[in-house]
Design goal:
Length: 237
Amino acid sequence: MSELPSIADREGERLQKVLARVGVGSRRVVEDLIAAGRISVNGEIAILGARVQVDHDVVEVDGTQLSLKADAVTYLLNKPRGVITTASDPQGRPTVVEIVPDEPRVYPVGRLDLDTEGLLLLTNDGAMAHRLTHPSFAIEKEYLAHVEGIPSRASLRQLREGIELDDGLTAPAAAATVGPGLIRLTIHEGRNRQVRRMCEAVGHPVRRLVRTRIGPLMDQRLKPGEFRRLTTEEVLE
Ligand code: URA
């Protein structure tokens, strides 16, 4: 009777080596994570010595899927006003992908309007893009909206509780005044021009809109037009 190959006999690279290479931590840290049962391969808790095939296997750290591709990259860009969120624009306007390196090719995650500034992610990591955009993950996005007029407490309450837009009621949001005519609004939906339409609906059209946070990601040091690569810790957050 032939014996089934043990997990350590599978073809592929050693899990510890792969995890260390993609930046999860030193060999020692990675071994501790495996021993603590925090790493899974294809849905099963991994053991030390397991082998993985980077093209097929799904490896997760605390339930977050990791991209094992050597060239997986995610950039955090501070999008300037007047730059379009697309991979190519038939009208020849400047695009966000032209700001970051050409190779490996990356794509914007979600979109900011032409006139909106602030944080935008670009990635070639499909799992990462899915986590950030799928409504089931309800990732928070925080905006600073410079609006016309001084919003009343009643307007802020309306923004928080939900507003009937032409594509339906908005989900509960966080809204606070942080200066004269300056609202900090946190939403987790991603409807077209949502913040502008919400503010307009309560009588305060937006003059300037800046996205200041995506989930846990903030960066006050990035100037408009600047970008940086996300660290592995940030990718796993
Ligand atoms: N809401 C808007 O109105 N515009 C954006 O670019 C993003 C959110």
